[in-house]
Amino acid sequence: MVDSARVAAGAIARKILGDKISVRGCLIQIGPHAIDRKRWDWNEVGKNPFFSPDAGTVKAWEEFLDGVRKAGSSAGAIIEIQASGVPAGWGDPIYDKLDADLAKAMMSINAVKGVEIGEGMGAALLSGEQNADEMRMKGGKVAFLSNHAGGILGGISTGQDLVARFAVKPTSSILKPLKSVDKFGKEIEVSTKGRHDPCVGIRAVPVGEAMMAVVLADHMLRHRAQCG
Fold first, then answer.
1. Who contacts 210 (Cβ-Cβ below 8 Å, separation ≥6)?
2. Residue 40: how many CB atoms within 10 A of its CB?
């Protein structure tokens, strides 16, 4: 019910944002198996049950998850959400940074344990010049030469695509017995019977899209109130 409420709110938020802003998401990794970003094709996302933009990973994911399911275990996943058409200037440089609100929204999704914007954790491996999104004039307008910042600088949108990723932990309820302690302090083993989901991260793609849309709609209305 919680996830369905988020998706419903996201549908309303998309109406507020209008047709010029596009929010879309996909699954980029299940367990240790990541997509090949060179084969990225948004048109593939709706053609497979994994929301994968890389058709080449689908078979590998099917085989991997089948093995995980048969073993009574589970696997985590990484989802990427992108928003195109967001104008420059949305957000706040201190208390209500756009990236901070996005991070909070994504972390509020069930089972999410990590969020990154743009290069995210990978930025720690780059030098200052490698990470910088340099600018030049193109067609009379300022153009960025890269988007390591994920479309947000100083808490404010730059006009580039917004890029956020979040990691979903493996399903906690698995068939394999795990060591635990009951309310009396007795050491026990716990296993879940019945329904078993080997990867809840797959279902998180539309939820992530919804949360991105909700945050953007909020900042759009706030920007309109402040700037007209």
1. 6, 7, 8, 9, 10, 11, 13
2. 15
**Where do we find the tokens 């994920």?**
150
Q: Are strands 22-30 and 152-153 parallel, antiparallel or unpaired?
A: unpaired
CA distance 39 to 61: 16
Q: Find the Cα–Cα–Cα–Cα dihedral 157, 5, 43, 16, rounded to 10°.
A: -50
List pLDDT tens digits, range 136-157: 999 999 899 999 999 999 999 9
Phi-psi region of 42 (alpha: psi -120 to 50; beta: other; left: phi over 0): alpha
> In this prediction, what percent of the chain has a pLDDT beyond 90?
88
CB 156 within 8 A of CB 89: yes
In the chain, where does DSSP find H-type helix? 2-17, 58-70, 98-107, 128-131, 204-227
Nearest in space to 223 (alpha carbons), one of 102, 98, 106: 98
The sign of the dihedral angle between the CA atoms of 30, 55, 160, 207 is negative
pTM here is: 0.93
Q: What is the CB neighbour count within 10 angstroms for residue 34?
A: 12
28: which 2 tokens? Answer: 């980029």
Q: What distance in Å separates the CA atoms of residue 27 and residue 35, rounded to the nearest whole number?
A: 8
pLDDT above 80 (res 165): yes
Which helix (H) or strand (E) segment holds residue 30: the answer is strand 22-30
| pLDDT tens, position by position, 120-131 | 999 999 999 999
The DSSP output letter for 200 is G
